[in-house]
Structures are given as C-alpha cells and as structure tokens.
Design a protein that fits this description.
Length: 382
C-alpha cells in the first residue's frame, strides 16, 4: 500500500461511521468497487450527503480515491459517478443548485490517467461549470480545481477561462432549472475548447448522464419542438471526438444538428466521412418516405455521406422492410449515403446502458450489408 493510500484509509477510518464504516471491508475485496457503487447510494441519501457535520460527501469521495490511487480508474469511475448522481438527486428534491464540481473533477482525473484526453477535458469543463455557478459571477481561481487543470494541463489561458466562467454564470441565471445540469450549459459554450485529439483508448467509450437525458425526454412531452434537437445534440456531443452544433443555417437550408467526427479512425466511422447532418422529428407518428427522401437530398447537396434521423416513433415499414425503411437501403445502394434512424426506443436502450457508438455501428452494418434488424432477427430466432 502506498503512503497516499494509507493517508486515504486513515481519513476514511476517522470519518466513516455506522453502516458506512462497515463498507471499509469492501476495499480489500476483488469486487469491492462494484459493491460500493451499489451500496453507497443505498446508505447515503441525498439530504444526508449535504449534512456538513457528517461530511459524507468527503467519505464517498475517499472511497473513490482509494481505487483511483491504485490506478484502478475503471472501478473508481462508477463510484464517482454515483456521487454525482446523488447530488443531482438532491437538486431534484430541493429544487436548488448544489456544487458538484468535486465529483466531476475526479471523473476527469480518472479519464486523464487512463489516457483519454477528450473525455478528461470534457469532464473538467463540466467541473468548471459547477465552480462558476458556485462562485456566482465572482470566480475564485484559488478554490477551483478545474482552473488548475484547464490552465496548467489543458492549455487554456487565464482570460479564456475567466470568459467561460462569466458566460457560464450568465447562462445559469437565464435558466436556473436547466442550469442545474452542467451538461446543459456545456452544450451552449461552443466547441473552441475542444482541441484534444481522440485517443484509441476512448474511441468506443460512451458515458451518458442518465438523469439529464430523462429531463430532456420529459421536455419532449411538455415542450415539443426544439427539445428533441437538444437531446440529439447531447447524444452526439458525448461521443469522444464529435463536435456537434445546433440550428446551423446555410444560405438555403436549416440544419437541426450538424456533427463533425474527428480523429484517426480504423472502424466503421472511416467509411462515413467527417461531417454528418441530423434531422429531428418529434411527431406522434413514424416519419415517412417523404421525410427520408428530403434528408437524403439535403445530405447529397452538402456532400455528406452520413445522416441521422431522430424520430420519436421511428419510420414507416420497419416491421417488413417496406416504405421508408426500404428507402434507407435504396439511398445507400444508389448514392452511397447512410441514414441511420434513432427512435425513442433506441434512446431508452442508451439510458439502460447501451453504447451509442456501438448502436450506430450495428445500424450502419444493417444498411451497408442489407442485414435484418437485430431486434427482428432475435425475435425470429426465438
């Protein structure tokens, strides 16, 4: 055990009380980190977590740091993510902002140690969002771990970071409900901060804030229109190496979401080109042939080989590969353009833990190779 681990363990023994103290035995178990990620949320409620006298947030943090300092970043990430979710639960219950920067800071450090620069930068920017809201427009660099890492390690200048902090506070004041989620704020900060190249280690990793996706799904019901665009933009922007922009207008066309895939690819993305265009339809019926044909023309005029159609109820003809579903295949065979459909059912799979990148790859192969949909093939085999 390293000296740092001894320090962490000594502090844990001092601060952990009662049933939480009983969890110390998990630190020596092979599956201990997985058990902690499950049991800590059961023992520590959202209100107790914010009780400064009990200091349970620090205790939770120390459990994660124990594994992080062993180099077991894959096991530390779920522990820190559950801490982040617990703080989000408190916000939902009490309808007020609580600082969540510490958990996001350590998530960033986990990704950094695992050689995932794009994810590390993203989570540090999320931590900056939290620090900026905490300081209420009077940013205190000396209290911000995000400042140290973004300036010292990621190369942002002091002036750039202060401008971001001011902008973040302004966005939060404009909408204090959605501003409870740093992901919502980050979606509006542009992409100038995204200068890191995606590494091979993060090429197929996909981390999603399930609580935020649930809120966006709820807004689809109560505030139809742009809500699906926000959701599509978020799902794309969480793919490492994907720059996503909402409501991009050309001289002749309004694009709901435009994505740019960056990095050296030797997987299916190398077939698709750099740019993609998304169309969003939150209709109460499946999108039809006309919608698909229109998107195909837009893609062709922009010289894009890849498009996404976010349609709440999918497209017509999915059960028997007819109508709009058949058009997907014809568009690829005739023009080499791939259009992938993402439905509400697909988004539910992502919330349940499916990987969006893997989902896109599977859907791409279904079109390129004219394969039966995996769900249909699975049903027939049963």
């Amino acid at each position: 055990m390293t000296p740092q681990q001894n320090i962490i363990l000594d502090e844990l023994k001092q601060k952990a009380k009662g049933k939480v103290a009983a969890l110390l035995g998990r630190l020596t178990k092979m599956e201990g980190a997985a058990e902690l990620a499950t049991e800590l949320p059961k023992l520590i409620g959202p209100t107790a977590l914010l009780d400064n006298k009990k200091d349970l947030q620090r205790v939770w943090e120390l459990f994660g740091l124990y594994f992080l300092n062993q180099g077991r970043v894959h096991e530390a990430i779920p522990v820190f993510y559950e801490l982040y979710y617990r703080l989000l639960d408190y916000q939902e219950k009490h309808h007020c902002h609580v600082p969540k920067g510490t958990s996001l800071f350590w998530l960033s450090r986990c990704h950094s140690l695992a050689q995932r620069p794009v994810l590390a930068k993203r989570y540090m920017m999320l931590a900056l969002c939290e620090d900026s809201i905490r300081d209420k427009g009077n940013f205190r660099a000396h209290l911000s771990g995000a400042y140290q890492q973004l300036v010292w390690s990621f190369g942002l200048s002091h002036n750039e970071l202060i401008n971001y902090a001011d902008h973040i506070w302004g966005l939060y004041k404009r909408n204090r409900v959605m501003g409870l989620f740093p992901e919502w704020i980050l979606q509006q900060l542009g992409d100038a901060w995204m200068i890191e190249q995606r590494s091979l280690a993060e090429s197929f990793l996909y981390f999603l804030n399930i609580r935020y996706v649930r809120v966006l799904q709820t807004r689809l019901k109560s505030q139809p229109g742009r809500s699906l665009e926000w959701l599509a933009h978020y799902l794309l922007s969480t793919i490492p190496g994907c720059r996503a922009k909402m409501n991009v207008r050309s001289q002749s066309t309004q694009y709901d979401v435009v994505g740019a895939l960056e990095g050296q690819d030797v997987d299916f993305r190398s077939d698709l080109g750099r740019y993609l265009i998304c169309e969003c339809k939150d209709w109460s019926k499946p999108a039809d042939f006309t919608t698909l044909a229109k998107l195909a023309r837009v893609l062709e005029s922009a010289k894009c080989k890849f498009g996404l159609l976010f349609s709440k109820l999918g497209i017509t003809g999915e059960a028997h590969t007819t109508a709009a579903t058949r058009e997907l295949l014809k568009v690829f065979q005739d023009r080499g353009i791939v259009i992938i459909v993402v439905s509400s059912q697909d988004i539910e799979k992502l919330v349940s833990g499916d990987n969006f990148i893997t989902m896109l790859r599977d859907k791409y192969e279904e079109i390129r190779l004219d394969l039966p949909k995996r769900s249909v093939a699975h049903a027939k085999s049963n």
